[in-house]
Here is the input.
Amino acid sequence: MRFMGKRQLGELQPTELVITILLSEIAAVPMENNDSPLLHSLFASALLVCLEIINSVINMKSPKISQILQGKPAVIIENGVLNQKKLKALRYSADDVLEQLRQKDVFDLSEVNYAVVETNGSLSLKKKKPLEPLTAGQYGIKEKETPIPILVINDGKILSFALKNTNISMKLINSILLSEKVKVEDILILLVSDANNYTLVKKDNK
Here is the structure.
């Protein structure tokens, strides 16, 4: 799964799901049948992985082939109105749509401006303007962007790999430890964005 890319660990496309199922079946053959050489299973698994990588590259390079293999997103709600033709084409029932809307915290169809069924089957939606949450930008308030928090200490251990390619240094970590008067081994987790934004949770030694 790692060789095939990070996308395969999230929502699977139909071809990716088939490959995943086939990989599990092939891997189980030598465990169920001692007469089946392990090398055959490894070769077949490697072949499937290579085919999936090639398929991913082709989809990335050719949008037309990608549409044939993976399909296209479909707009099923527009201005609060269900597109029944699209639902029939997708073999979606009204219950299926309402269930996915509830999972997005939407209980009234009329609240939705647009809803799109993505190629992986998930539902994306946009609420009508009066129902969208207000933001600081709408009030003309300028907020400073802060970096995402990085987990740098986990269960009393400094994660050196987390410090690579970030602006977080050991000097910054040591200054936080000094200000909090705590040792590394006494920390459960330490999340750091910058010198002024961090979350520290001490171990419960009870």
